[in-house]
Amino acid sequence: MTTRAEIAAIIDHTLLKPEATSHQVAQLVAQGAELGVFSVCVSPSMLPCAVPGGLAVATVCGFPSGAHSAAVKAAEAAGAVAAGADEVDMVVNLGLVKDGRLEAVEAEIRAVAQACGPALLKVIIESAALSDEEIVACCHAAEAAGAGYVKTSTGFHPAGGASVHAVSLMRATVGDRLGVKASGGIRSASDALAMVDAGASRLGVSATVAILEGLED
């Protein structure tokens, strides 16, 4: 998976800046369709989001801190799916993870997974803020709770974004049973290829144009 089209087909073309406007979202959709990406990822307040056929709509939940109650996250996810989201990227409660309360983490993810219904749930674990043991534990919780993907980062945490090490560890933990999404700080073709080589099956990026320009057809 090295060509421009192959990489584009696993990209969530993302615009999650708080100040993003509806006009900018419309531009994102048009650009995403032109580039051949898998989806556009927008804030839940931008839903419903009209897209051409073949382009999926993703959104976020409990974003970016993850420090919302499980009930609020579940309600947000349900509302997003009702408004047309095909995929929901939720942020885990990092405080629960750091407290070692993995049963509570799993219960929260399960509540959101159930609220998503047919929509795909991706679980953002904010890997740069976690130890290897915590990354593995979060991946196990996400799998047990019915998530479809584990995802590295929001891109908003000061600890940083995706790393090859985290992606490799996440892939080793979930095997081929779940998808792995690398997100946060991926800004070049070499970054994207390194994440794919490490095991990422989806990329969340805002620098889509720059990444694809660095790849051959």
TrEMBL record:
Pathway: Carbohydrate degradation; 2-deoxy-D-ribose 1-phosphate degradation; D-glyceraldehyde 3-phosphate and acetaldehyde from 2-deoxy-alpha-D-ribose 1-phosphate: step 2/2. Pfam families: DeoC (PF01791). One of its GO terms (cellular component) is cytoplasm. Signal peptide: none annotated. Coiled coil: none annotated. The active site is at residues 89, 151, 181. One of its GO terms (biological process) is carbohydrate catabolic process. NCBIfam families: deoC. Belongs to the DeoC/FbaB aldolase family. DeoC type 1 subfamily. This is Deoxyribose-phosphate aldolase. It comes from Actinomyces howellii. The gene is deoC.
